[in-house]
């Protein structure tokens, strides 16, 4: 419908533009500067013609070849007219006319220059087959090409005009309907008219009948009078299942064909007069197919109850890819599980199924050359199981096949969504477990580092305590510093001098010679010594008790042998 609407709009726009251009020329709207291009119609005498000129008509048969005298031919729209002379064409005194149906090349016998062409025409009623073709010879090759081009354009224009006129006739049917208050589904399904019908096999013949669509039923009458006299007694009556387009007709006498599948009699091919009627019939029959109850479409006993929990059930012809026997089974779809029984009664009696398998995929059946059975491809579908097994199932009609495919795909989609949800939850839980494990690993690493640091600290504390205890043991036997003590007790040093400090153990470095010298020292010298006491030795650099830092602080012998007290 979208394509038809777009083409109709384009044709209307083109015609509107042409009419507007013509009106502008008639009203002299163009200025003086505007140049009007003159086409190749110079010398034409018939208004509106697309091609004119002298042509010679050839008469042929299996024993004769002859040609007439050259005549003046005029191509106007899709009609080719013949005149004796150009003056008669100007006076519209035609001898013959033809409706163009096509154009092709024509080889003139015994001629070096081929300027002939054939015009395929639609003859008047009652003329023979030879009258379909008119053989003509042009004066030159250039004239031949001009005539062929003009004839092809005229034929294409005629087809477009015919199609456009058909669109205009059925415009209300083809264009989208405007929304109304009532729903289209509430409208009654009814249509009638003459159509041509044949059975869906090669040798069937086309016959015209008067047909009526009422609800989901398609009734066939021999003629219109039979329908008016006995509308309740049709020649045939079928319940519509599906409608599809059809392009496989080999007959040239029928066009606009579509295919209808019935519930009990297979396929019927239907031909109507125009594309508009075809679309109208197909729309009505599509609604009739949707109005068919599902209980009538599915092959099962509707009087019996349904299998508990089944999303789809019914009889199918089960086939395998090997040359095994083809059997009719009652199949049940539980989720994505496929069960098949011998009969519907066995399934409802809770008997063990003949087979159970899990469905992985489903697809329509495609006929291949490797399978040479009687499978109807339009009614069959293929199931792939989880065990890599292929099963071909054939339904009673294509509507039932589509119901099975839709039901299986629906269950597969539900299972896929459920598995996707479970997988998403599992991935989230795995991510949480991984994060917890990472946190535990990090905590364990920190704990190990802390334990190592504590152990190192404890070792350092233990070593420090050992050093302190060893220092305390040394302090009990030695003084913190060493000072000289006067052997004679005649020391007049100040009380805050190192010589006056108490000590548990004082070292005496005075020799016997020094003691004799002090004993023989006069009183005044001893008295003056209290105020000035020069050291005996200026430096003692070889004292083993002093470090290098201590030696630089001592400049006299009085402090040379003492240990430095850090608190001073």
From TrEMBL:
Residues 48-156, 188-290, 309-413 form the PH domain. It comes from the Eukaryota. Transmembrane segments: none annotated. InterPro entries: PH-like_dom_sf, PH_domain, PI-Interact_SigTrans_Reg. CDD domains: PH. Gene3D superfamilies: Pleckstrin-homology domain (PH domain)/Phosphotyrosine-binding domain (PTB). SMART domains: PH (SM00233). This is PH domain-containing protein. It comes from Thraustotheca clavata.
């Amino acid at each position: 419908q979208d394509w038809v609407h777009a083409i109709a709009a384009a044709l209307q726009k083109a015609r509107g533009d042409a009419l507007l251009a013509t009106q502008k020329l008639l009203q002299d709207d163009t200025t003086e500067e505007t140049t009007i291009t003159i086409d190749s119609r110079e010398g034409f005498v018939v208004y509106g013609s697309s091609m004119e000129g002298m042509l010679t008509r050839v008469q042929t048969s299996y024993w004769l070849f002859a040609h007439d005298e050259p005549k003046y031919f005029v191509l106007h729209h899709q009609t080719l007219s013949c005149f004796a002379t150009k003056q008669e064409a100007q006076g519209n005194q035609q001898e013959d006319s033809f409706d163009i149906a096509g154009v092709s090349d024509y080889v003139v016998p015994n001629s070096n220059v081929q300027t002939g062409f054939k015009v395929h025409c639609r003859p008047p009623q009652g003329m023979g087959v030879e009258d379909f073709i008119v053989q003509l010879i042009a004066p030159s090759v250039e004239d031949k090409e001009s005539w062929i081009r003009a004839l092809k354009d005229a034929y294409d224009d005629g087809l477009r005009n015919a199609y456009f006129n058909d669109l205009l006739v059925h415009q209300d049917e083809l264009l989208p309907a405007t929304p109304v208050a009532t729903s289209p589904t509430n409208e009654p399904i009814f249509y009638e008219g003459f159509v041509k019908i044949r059975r869906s096999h090669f040798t069937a013949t086309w016959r015209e009948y008067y047909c009526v669509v009422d609800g989901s039923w398609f009734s066939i009458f021999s003629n219109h009078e039979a329908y008016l006299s006995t509308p309740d007694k049709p020649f045939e009556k079928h319940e519509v299942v599906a409608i599809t387009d059809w392009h496989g007709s080999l007959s040239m006498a029928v066009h606009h064909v579509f295919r209808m599948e019935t519930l009990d009699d297979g396929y019927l091919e239907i031909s109507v007069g125009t594309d508009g009627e075809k679309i109208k019939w197909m729309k009505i029959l599509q609604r009739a197919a949707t109005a068919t109850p599902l209980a009538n479409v599915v092959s099962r006993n509707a009087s019996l109850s349904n299998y508990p929990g089944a999303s789809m059930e019914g009889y199918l012809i089960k086939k395998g890819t090997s040359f095994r026997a083809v059997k009719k089974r009652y199949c049940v779809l539980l989720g994505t599980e496929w069960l098949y029984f011998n009969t519907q009664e066995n399934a409802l009696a809770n008997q063990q199924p003949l087979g159970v398998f899990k469905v992985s995929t489903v697809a329509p059946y495609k006929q291949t050359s490797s399978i040479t059975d009687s499978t109807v491809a339009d009614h069959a579908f293929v199931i792939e199981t989880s065990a890599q097994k292929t099963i071909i199932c054939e339904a009673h009609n294509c509507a039932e096949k589509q119901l099975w495919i839709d039901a299986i795909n629906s269950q597969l989609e539900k299972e896929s969504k459920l598995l996707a949800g479970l997988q998403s939850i599992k991935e989230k839980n795995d991510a949480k477990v991984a994060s917890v494990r990472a946190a535990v690993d990090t905590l364990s690493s920190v704990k190990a580092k802390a334990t190592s640091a504590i152990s190192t600290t404890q070792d350092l504390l233990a070593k420090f305590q050992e050093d302190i205890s060893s220092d305390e043991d040394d302090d009990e036997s030695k003084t913190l510093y060493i000072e000289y003590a006067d052997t004679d007790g005649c020391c007049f040093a100040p009380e805050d001098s190192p010589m006056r400090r108490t000590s548990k153990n004082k070292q005496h470095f005075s020799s016997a010679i020094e003691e004799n010298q002090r004993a023989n020292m006069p009183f005044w010298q001893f008295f003056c010594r209290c105020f000035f006491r020069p050291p005996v030795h200026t430096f003692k650099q070889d004292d083993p008790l002093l470090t290098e830092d201590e030696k630089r602080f001592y400049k006299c012998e009085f402090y040379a042998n003492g240990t430095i007290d850090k608190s001073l």
